[in-house]
Amino acid sequence: MRTSNVLQGLALVAIFGGTLGACTVTSDNPGTGGATGSAGAQSTAGNQGTAGTQTGSFEIACTGAKTPTVDASAAVKGPCDIYAADGGPCVAAHSTVRALYGGYSGPLYQVKKADGTTKDVTPLMAGGFADSTIQDAFCGVDPCTISIIYDQSGSGNHLTKAPAGGAKMTPDDEAKAGALPVTFKGHNVYGVHIVPGIGYRNNMACGTATGDKQETMYMVADGSAYNKGCCFDYGNMERNSRDNGEGTMEAVYFGTCTIWGKGAEMGPWVMGDLENGLWAGDVSPYLNAKPVTFKYLTGMVKGDAPGMNHWAIKLGDAQAGTLISQFDGPRPSDRYKVMRKEGAIGLGTGGDNSNGAIGNFFEGVMTAHFSSAAADEAVQANIVAAYGP
């Protein structure tokens, strides 16, 4: 059974599905959640794109001023410079650790005190690591949370705390700003520590892949922080925070949830969350998906062009070496043969706001392009250069 609705004032078709989540089947009845709410006012971070023109059932075209972040003259390139040169510019670029363009000097994230005052954290220099002294000086001994993870791409696809959804019917919490101190290349920075109840989302993201269209996404995460809860994801999700059925998601997952699919042994694994299914390949168990043993990992999920029925999963040690092709082939079943991606962006939860996961997130990007193998390897080399010992 499906019904349609108008989502957040735009004529977006919202298909309310069941509420499979948290690695537990709760109900097959359609959700009835209605509007998902908004994150409230955000600080301005220069000229940023704004979600605007609707061009399809779920597709939103970016409008407004877009900051040109690709700097061909930049001495150091970032992952999004590499993907832009490959023909697939980033439509979202999120990190509390570093700039993801060689020429980017805008805000990376915002911290907030209990009294509501906020402060943006910027890189030490264009293309560089976050200046954590800004956070330290602002927060001091007071508790702070990460209130915005800015989109560096210029599309305005910032992440704020997730609204209520089908599985967790109250808004999520923000991560504690000082919960994950780490040091990379001698720079003290902070990651995003996800625990049950914490999650970020942008249900009005613009420029992202919808339907059966192509995309590439990756996240850099902590290989030692995981659980079997649903779902430590980063990527493409439903616009109404509901389970809208198979194929309405395409996100990177890391953990040991086994209710839908699994890899070899006991995990943890990098898998693709395609909704109502965590897949390490095209069957389960997919024995080519070996347990991740890296201290920090690069997890990548790619969906090919319309009609191709083709996707891929890659993973790598974020501190050394090249990517491993875990899977490259057809979708796992006819239910995913033609994808129905909706184009929202989420971090730390499942598509229906299933909110039982643990994980540590450092960076992630999304494109609307099926990147070349050469570009993926160049991005991995860039990650290793930043996160390696």
Q: Can you tell me about this structure?
A:
By secondary structure, this protein is mostly beta strands. The protein is 8% helix and 30% strand. The strands form six sheets. Strands 5, 12, 14, 19, 20, 21 and 23 form a seven-stranded antiparallel sheet that branches. Strands 9-13-22-15-16-17-18 form a seven-stranded antiparallel sheet, with no helix packed on it. A hairpin with a 4-residue loop joins strand 6 and strand 7. Helix 1 packs antiparallel against helix 3. The radius of gyration is 19 Å and the shape is globular. The N terminus is likely disordered.
Secondary structure blueprint with pairings:
Blueprint (H helix, E strand, L loop, with lengths): L5 E2 L2 E4 L36 E5 L5 E4 L15 H7 L4 E6 L13 E5 L4 E4 L10 H8 L4 E6 L10 E2 L19 E4 L2 E4 L1 E3 L5 E3 L12 E8 L10 E5 L12 E6 L13 E5 L4 E2 L16 E8 L7 E7 L2 E10 L14 E4 L11 E9 L5 H15 L2
Antiparallel strand pairs: 1-2, 3-4, 5-23, 6-7, 6-8, 9-13, 10-11, 12-23, 13-22, 14-19, 14-23, 15-16, 15-22, 16-17, 17-18, 19-20, 20-21
